[in-house]
Write a structure and sequence with these properties.
By secondary structure, the protein is α/β, with parallel strands linked by helices. It has seven helices and nine strands. The relative contact order is 0.22.
Length: 192
């Protein structure tokens, strides 16, 4: 697989649709060409998450300071008091390694990246087979309260309305098939 180090791969989806599993598959298969773009977040780390690997965990004040210093290529308050964003320095860090950044980000952030980098981005929207299936996946994680589950399901329904804004839609009914379809799209993009 050839690498143009000024390309960006954006993988977005409602929470629970499987985008992170697909991203992990791609990163394990192509470690010399692709690198995970670590997002910044103000939420607390989940069990086994490591700052600098899974997210750059920071306080809300620190995050807001970086906003004011224009250090983000995109950012958003995804849930009340919970900010997420992509640092410019993170994209540049990966390009400096002669690799291509893979962004696993929410829908609004993905749209902002597409606006900022329209000529060098490939965007994929990972769609769950249904909102009911998405709800089951989120429940199976065991990390959601009833209120947070309802908020994520409502947000997912809204985010699905943006799927046609992205270059490709991959329906994740079967994870192996979704990984293979995503891989084929990315290989074609890298070789274009």
């Amino acid at each position: 697989m050839a690498v143009n180090n000024h390309k960006i791969i954006i993988i977005t989806a409602p929470s629970g649709a499987g985008k992170t599993s697909i991203v992990h598959y791609l990163l394990q298969k192509y470690p010399d060409q692709l690198a995970f773009s670590v997002s910044a977040a103000t939420r607390k780390p989940r069990e086994k998450e490591v700052s600098g690997r899974d997210y750059y965990f920071m306080s809300e004040d620190e995050f807001k300071q970086k906003i004011h210093q224009n250090e983000f290529v995109e950012w958003e308050m995804v849930y009340e008091g919970k900010y997420y964003g992509t640092l410019q320095s993170e994209i540049q860090r990966i390009w400096n390694m002669n690799k291509m950044p893979v962004l696993d980000i929410d829908v609004k952030g993905a749209l902002r990246i597409l606006e900022r980098y329209p000529d060098c981005s490939l965007s994929l929207f990972i769609q769950p087979p249904s909102v009911d299936e998405l709800k089951k996946r989120l429940q199976s994680r065991g990390t959601e309260t009833a209120a947070s589950l309802a908020a994520r399901v409502n947000k997912a329904s809204y985010e699905l309305s943006f799927k046609d804004h992205f270059h490709h839609i991959v329906i994740n009914k079967d994870l192996n098939a979704a990984c293979a379809e995503t891989e084929e799209i990315i290989i074609n993009y890298l070789n274009s």
